[in-house]
Every structure is written in structure tokens, then in C-alpha cells.
């Protein structure tokens, strides 16, 4: 397979960041900083993580197409 190892690493890291759960320390920092209850924090942080991860994957696809 002709896959650049750096792009492979970045795509794996992006896929791993798509979900955040209650046992994640960032979830509690997010929850306590914004003062949300647990349900609101899960909903907003999940949507933000999915949008962020999909945007990063799209960026990686563009990098693969134009630079490699």
C-alpha cells in the first residue's frame, strides 16, 4: 500500500477524537467551565467533536489529493 505514514497517523488520531464520554477528563473541564448539566454537555460536546473530526478528515483528504 502506498500510504504516507504521517497521513495514516493523522487520520487515526482524527478518528480517535470523534467521541468524548463522561470518563474523559476534558468532558469534566468543559462541563464545569461552561456550567452545563451533564446531558447538555454530552449533546454539545459530541456535536462539536463530530464536526471537528469530519472537518479534519476532509482536510486530510485534500492534503492527500493535492500534495501526495
UniProtKB/TrEMBL annotation:
Keywords: Membrane, Transmembrane, Transmembrane helix. This is GntP family permease. It comes from the Bacteria. The keyword Transmembrane applies. It holds the Pfam family GntP_permease. InterPro entries: Glcn_transporter (IPR003474). It comes from Billgrantia zhangzhouensis. The chain crosses the membrane at residues 44-67.
Amino acid at each position: 500500500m502506498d500510504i504516507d505514514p504521517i497521513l495514516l497517523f493523522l487520520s487515526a488520531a482524527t478518528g480517535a477524537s470523534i467521541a468524548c464520554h463522561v470518563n474523559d477528563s476534558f468532558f469534566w473541564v468543559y462541563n464545569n467551565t461552561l456550567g452545563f448539566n451533564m446531558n447538555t454537555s454530552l449533546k454539545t460536546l459530541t456535536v462539536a467533536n463530530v464536526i471537528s473530526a469530519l472537518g479534519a478528515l476532509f482536510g486530510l483528504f485534500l492534503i492527500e489529493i493535492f500534495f501526495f
